[in-house]
Amino acid sequence: MFKFKTGLIVAAAAVGFMASGFAASAQKEVTIGAAGNTGGLAIFVAQDKGFFSKNGIDVKVEIRNTGSELSKGLRSGEFDYAPAAFTNLPVALERGFDVRGFVGYVGAAFEKTTADEVVALIASKESGINTMADLKGKKVGVTFGSTGDLWLRQAMKEAGLGTNDLERINTRPPSLVSVLDTGGVDAIVGWEPFNFRATQKVAGSKVVKRGGDLVCFCAYLHGNPDRVYGDEETTQKLVDAVSEAAAFVRNPANRDEVAEIGARFANATKEEVMAGLDFWVFDPRIGSNTAQAFRNSVNLLIEQKKMKAPYDPARYLDSKFVRSTMERHPEWFADLGKGS
Predict the structure, then answer these.
(1) What is the pLDDT of residues 95-130, one digit of tens each?
(2) Is residue 235 part of a domain?
């Protein structure tokens, strides 16, 4: 089991590259924050398989449980780069959080503006919940401010439920399964591996609803402008490494190895990681659909009165690095569908 919060997960050894007879030079050292779930597989694989080192950077990966912890760590200088989800990041951007997203961490936003199959509502056997409408009067465990929380609100709206029709219980992701198992809530909303873990560990629990294209579960790796543009060579190497690792994760021939790597990094079993591979999407690209997915999230946050005004995605997203990778390494993207 890896240490969370302050624990350094892995440090790749600094090595030098030899080029055209010149002396080797030390690799650039950077620290990346990653979420403690299987959504970080591209980062975990890049570290474990040596893609970071291969592309010329020495990376340390640190794990946190929530997006807010990752953003806090980036602000305080614990990390050089970290991911954040579109469903909560815009609130921080409006309040002055100055970062630029430059490569996909997880999600399918390049191909479509909504993608949320990794999110699900899991109900206990005793709850009597068989449809979303059955949530009326029930208690639901969900992480406030998360993509799961925004998804739940949209699913409630779709089912004709108002915010007062059920009680939302703020639950940290690692506690979702236990609070369902002990009867503290009637149902939970989570993502993988927590959904699969719940159905395996809580007898009689079941998936009531999964996905539905209600939101975009998408997150992008970002850093402050001084970091991203102050050393564009390092940023480009990072994008190359993440893109190569994402291609490795998507390759069906690598599922077993990817699951083993994920189990070591994400505090999950190999079986849990394997099950999640059916729902997570690892696409590094940034395009017009990505921008629209961002706008959609902003609109939902304004509707919930968490934001005051629209926020131009161009102020956050920069596709030039990943476009360079795509031009130089089309083989890493050949299996992906068309987007925009």
Answers:
(1) 999 999 999 999 999 999 999 999 999 999 999 999
(2) yes
Q: Per the structure, how many domains does the chain have?
A: 2
On whether residue 264 sits in a domain, the answer given is yes
Query: How do 57-64 and 8-11 pair as beta strands?
Result: antiparallel
CATH code for the domain in which residue 154 is found: 3.40.190.10
pLDDT of 205 over the 50 cut: yes
| pLDDT tens profile 243-254 | 999 999 999 999
Q: Is 122 helix (H, G, I), strand (E, B) or coil?
A: strand
Report how far residue 272's alpha carbon sits from residue 260's, in angstroms, rounded to the nearest whole number. Answer: 10
Do residues 284 and 310 share a domain? yes
Residues 110 and 149 in one domain: no
* Domain assignment present for 337: no
Residue type, 90: P
Strands 57-64 and 28-35: parallel
**Dihedral of alpha carbons 61, 319, 329, 23, sign:** negative
Query: What digits encode the pLDDT tens for the residues 48-84?
Result: 999 999 999 999 999 987 778 898 999 999 999 999 9
Contact residues for 180 (Cβ-Cβ < 8 A; gap 6+): 122, 124, 141, 187, 188, 198, 202, 205
- Does residue 22 have a pLDDT over 80? no
Q: Which of 144, 178, 210 is the last residue of a domain?
A: 210
Q: How many residues does the chain have?
A: 340
Which residue type sits at 320?
Answer: K
- DSSP assignment of 261-323 equals HHHHHTT--HHHHHHHTTT--B-----HHHHHHHHHHHHHHHHTTS-SS---GGGTB--HHHH
Residues 227, 235: Cα–Cα separation, whole Å: 8
Strands (DSSP E) along the chain, which ranges?
8-11, 16-19, 22-26, 28-35, 57-64, 82-85, 100-106, 119-123, 139-142, 167-170, 187-191, 206-210, 219-223
Determine the Cα–Cα distance for residues 45 and 164; give it in Å rounded to an integer: 43
Residue 137: give the domain boundaries.
Answer: 119-210
Question: Is residue 32 scored above 60 in pLDDT?
Answer: yes
